[in-house]
Design goal:
Length: about 280
């Protein structure tokens, strides 16, 4: 279709750069593409046969948002997708066109359209009754490479894409694990302090079992062809789901290890995370 070609061109020219001028991560580029294409396809299904993306207007955005709300999309998802469409509107020369959720949903209680930034329930594995040691044994039997990745997620709070790109040999700076530019969320670099013996032991355990020249992500796909980041992300997700790491089955996902790391780190420096404060809610 004509609109698909033009949307692809617009994204190719613009989505690789963040708003601050930095380089966008592959995950950010991929998510933006998914949101924009889904929006145009949904508008077509709703009767708006837009062939030229530059004809996208505020009226179509309003119809889209009301359709999201009607079909039960969460506030967090709507805010995220609206943000990406807001960026796309700038790329087609219409900055300021995309408004707020409140603007498009004036009859909805504003309190429903706010996402709390404070977690009320812990997403960590142990808080959800999971024996991490036993689970790691199960993961190792299924895919040892994945087991190594999960250990680094636990010890350093790495995100999925970060751990797939991680080369622990190159990123071990003795006092910290360094996340290089382009590896982390939004392409930003950061240093993760090595504060405990356990962090060092896990890092050495992983280093002793991996190549000094390759990242942790699988080098080859299941069918034997060279793996790409996109293929490795899908493989990671499929393996985790098959091992039960979903909200429906175990109540947690792989990202729960990042929450585990955050809670452990907070306790280490003498803070009580809100998710572990039993003085509210349960008692």
């Amino acid at each position: 279709m004509e609109w698909e070609f033009e949307v692809n061109r617009i994204l190719a020219e613009n989505s690789g750069t963040r708003r601050d001028g930095g380089i966008a991560s592959e995950r950010t580029i991929s998510l933006t593409r998914e949101v924009v294409f889904a929006a145009f396809r949904r508008l077509h299904a709703l009767g708006f046969k837009i062939q030229n993306p530059y004809n996208l207007g505020n009226r179509q955005i309003e119809v889209l948002v009301k359709d999201w709300y009607k079909n039960g999309k969460s506030t967090k998802t709507m805010l995220n997708e609206l943000s990406r469409l807001r960026q796309f509107s700038k790329w087609i020369g219409k900055p300021g066109m995309v408004g707020s959720l409140e603007k498009y949903l004036p009859h909805v209680d504003p309190s429903e359209l706010v996402v709390s930034t404070i977690a009320k329930k812990s997403k960590s594995w142990t808080s959800n009754g999971i024996d991490i040691v036993e689970k790691f044994k199960e993961v190792d039997q299924r895919d040892f490479q994945l087991g190594l990745m999960l250990r680094l997620e636990l010890a350093f709070g790495l995100r999925r894409e970060e751990v797939l790109k991680c080369n622990p040999h190159l990123q071990d700076y003795t006092h910290c694990l360094k996340i290089f530019p382009g590896m982390g969320k939004g392409g930003r670099w950061r240093d993760i302090p090595i504060l405990t013996i356990e962090q060092r032991e896990i890092l050495e355990f992983v280093k002793a079992r991996t190549s000094k020249r390759k990242p942790l992500g699988w080098e080859y796909a299941v069918n034997g062809t060279p793996a790409t980041l996109k293929k490795n992300i899908r493989r990671y997700e499929n393996l985790m789901a098959s091992l039960g790491f979903t909200k429906k089955k175990l109540g947690v996902t792989g990202h729960g290890l990042r929450a585990q790391f955050s809670e452990n780190y907070a306790l280490l420096i003498g803070l009580l995370p809100p998710t572990l404060d039993r003085n509210e809610g349960d008692f």
